[in-house]
Design goal:
single chain, about 450 residues, alpha/beta, Rossmann fold, Helicase, Ruva Protein, domain 3, five-stranded parallel β-sheet, 19 helices
């Protein structure tokens, strides 16, 4: 019989899981956040701790320091709904740590409590190095990014992350938080995903009865991130009339909950993110100048994937390894497939690459290790975006036509029949155009 501490904020899950473990003959105590977990550990010892990776008051990783200080460290099993967390746990924690992916079955609980290892197909893919526990890449642009993270992590300066959609701004925010060694949690909120009516409540909190539907007091993300990091994603999408309130908080480090007159002190580093360019920010009146200078004390430009081609292979292998672990498969990438991936410019960046690998895993035969990559990588959105970028003032019709033909061929990996269909011309006309441009070149 084991003494077990179950730490998870999902009350329905804790109820079911505790019943299963009690049926198996174990005793179970429950904590719904880090604070309650620390209270249980004050006067009790446990053989096994089942620990949710994401809790209301921080990451379950914060409890690991406390557990490691115990005279006898219990076995720890992380619980998460995100398969990618497995690689982070493996990187950051020692051999006494396991993990479970929700939804969890009775057999999963029996396995981790008995210490048995799950049956896995041996993978031919080696885990690439993880920087700050979450970033992958060895290219020169990424080395420069790591250097900037290390520099700003030693300070309390606010950081603004800039870059195209899909480059991984939230992952970089997590890296900055990890490198800073802050005691508080990393709390993230998307300013573009909140309605104008609710953004004040989300950021600063509200009192019970402050507005219709406010049936209880709510703590805003500034307070939730106390002594930690607050990540404001898509900060340039915040309504302009809400920005003076944000500016006041940045200047005074005091928040006033909606429906209250009392000021509450807050202490957290702000990491914000936007996919808007500096020119757009300056010209389109989407972010006040005084707020920009408060948020962008240390701006960091995250390089798009096309500028770090050397990292494509590492990222593709990492994603494939994660999907292999999740699905108990053993797919591998061939040298030719990696070359294909590296030849594409990935307008959707790391997000698009991960989506492509995921799609390939779904398309492939589970009885084989052969991975079937899609015939065409490009999405209709990226194709249209690239096509529009080629239409600039001053170009002749012949130049635009040539650029469009070569762009289309690149998108379909040189398939001239498919390219002709997409362009609405015959294959003969396409060949004539290519010969007029000086031959087939790389598409021969």
């Amino acid at each position: 019989m084991l003494s077990i501490l179950l730490v998870d904020d999902d009350q329905e899950f804790t109820k079911v899981a505790s019943h299963i473990m009690e049926f198996l003959g174990h005793t179970v105590d429950i904590a719904h956040d880090l604070k309650q977990a620390h209270e249980w550990l004050e006067n009790n010892s446990f053989d096994h701790v089942l620990l949710d990776f994401m809790l209301p008051d921080g990451s379950g990783l914060h409890l690991m320091d406390r557990l490691k200080q115990l005279s006898v460290m219990p076995k720890v099993t992380f619980i998460t709904g995100h398969p990618s967390v497995k690689s982070v746990v493996a990187e950051l924690c020692g051999p006494k740590v396991d993990y479970l992916i929700k939804p969890i079955q009775r057999e999963d609980l029996e396995r981790v409590l008995s210490g048995a290892k799950p049956k896995q197909i041996a993978s031919a893919i080696k885990m690439p190095p993880m920087h700050f526990g979450c970033l992958v890449g060895e290219s020169a642009p990424m080395q420069q990014l790591y250097s900037m993270i290390e520099r700003v992590a030693k300070t309390s300066a606010n950081v603004m992350l800039m870059g195209e959609s899909g480059v991984g701004k939230e992952v970089v925010a997590a890296a900055i938080h990890s490198a800073s060694g802050l005691k508080g949690p990393l709390v993230a909120t998307n300013c573009g995903g909140l309605s104008k009516e609710l953004i004040g409540s989300e950021l600063f909190g509200h009192e019970k009865g402050a507005f219709t539907g406010a049936i209880a007091q709510k703590t805003g993300v500034f307070e939730q991130a106390e002594n930690g990091t607050l990540f404001l994603d898509e900060v340039t999408e915040m309504p302009i009339d809400m920005q003076p309130t944000l500016l006041r908080v940045l200047e005074t480090k005091q928040v006033i909950r909606v429906g209250s007159t009392k000021e509450t002190a807050v202490n957290c580093r702000i990491v914000s993110a936007t996919n808007r360019s500096l020119q757009q920010i300056a010209e389109q009146n989407i972010l006040r100048e005084d707020i920009y200078f408060r948020l962008a004390v240390f701006p960091i430009e995250i390089p798009p994937l096309r500028q770090r081609t050397a990292d494509i292979s590492l990222l593709a292998k990492l994603f494939l390894l994660q999907f292999n672990n999740e699905n108990n498969t053993s797919y591998v990438l061939t040298a030719a497939q990696i070359k294909r991936l590296e030849a594409y410019d990935w307008p959707g960046n790391v997000r698009e690459l991960r989506h492509t690998i995921h799609r390939a895993v779904i398309m492939s035969d589970t009885k084989s290790s052969h991975l079937v990559l899609p015939e065409v990588f490009a999405s209709p959105f990226s194709f249209n975006k690239d096509k529009q970028q080629g239409l600039t003032a001053g170009k002749t019709i012949e130049e635009v036509e040539k650029e469009l033909i070569y762009l289309t061929l690149k998108k379909v990996d040189g398939n001239k029949t498919l390219a002709a269909e997409m362009l609405g011309i015959s294959a003969k006309t396409l060949y004539n155009r290519l010969h007029a441009y000086g031959g087939l070149g790389e598409f021969s």
